[in-house]
Amino acid sequence: MARAVGIDLGTTNSVVAVLEGGEPTVIANAEGARTTPSVVAFAKDGEVLAGEVAKRQGVTNVDRTIRSVKRHVGTDWKTEVDGKSFNPQQISAFILQKLKRDAEAYLGETVTDAVITVPAYFNDHQRQATKEAGEIAGLNVSRIINEPTAAALAYGLDKGDEQTILVFDLGGGTFDVSLLEIGDGVIEVKATSGDNNLGGDDWDNAVVDWIVSTFKSKTGIDLTKDKMAMPRIREAAERAKIELSSSSSTSINLPYITVQDGSPVFLDETLSRSEFEKITADLLERTKAPFNNVVKDAGISVNQIDHVVLVGG
Questions:
Q1: Residues taking part in catalysis
Q2: Looking at the 3D structure of the chain, how many domains does it have?
């Protein structure tokens, strides 16, 4: 009997896993990474690319590269490439097909069944659209489950005594807080709140804005008008954000970022953690309201929460 896979179809990155010996195992993709960028691109020859290869060529193929499509799931958003129109389900399906291929290469068998996770606050229309994306990708979506429930299951929290768990999920493009009650192997979402326009992308954007404004104040050059420069800056901003998790400062060095009067211009800046915290303070502040709403809606006090699970990255 073919095994079902579990898929986290994320805004920025996606993951596919399988149960091995009763434990979830994340499947590495063809590039050797455990996460796959949720990026789709259309090459000039019409080939559809998904994952890391799509993300890499996005620097030189900006107009034909699509990111963060999860933000549009369940809406009437469309994008047109080479005269063809694509909706969020179709774009998401390209990512799911990539995950399906990687899972099949790992398992050595055809993958047909999948469980896909969605944010707890996704409405029925968004859940149905996610299921449709799976079907377009050639998957039988046996179940759509809430991301906080999946997180609790992954940590084995359903196997303990009755407890109240807070799941704080700050993803690439969406943020949600969920309060779960667990008992007798049953997980119940008691309250959920969030912001589907808040995530790691926004922290990246804050760093991008800082780089652009700092560079402009020194050189007078507005890099936002340079289509080739901006994708490089965005990648550098993401790297800087990650490095600042473990360092007090990071160097942002981009040679030949642009040209002025026929001569190449280099970008070399240093961003400190304290400056990073300052330029992103408003984003962190936005996470407070959903947390307070969940505690209030569930009618409990903070000291009644047994565990906090942090999800994202």
A1: 8, 70, 147, 169
A2: 2
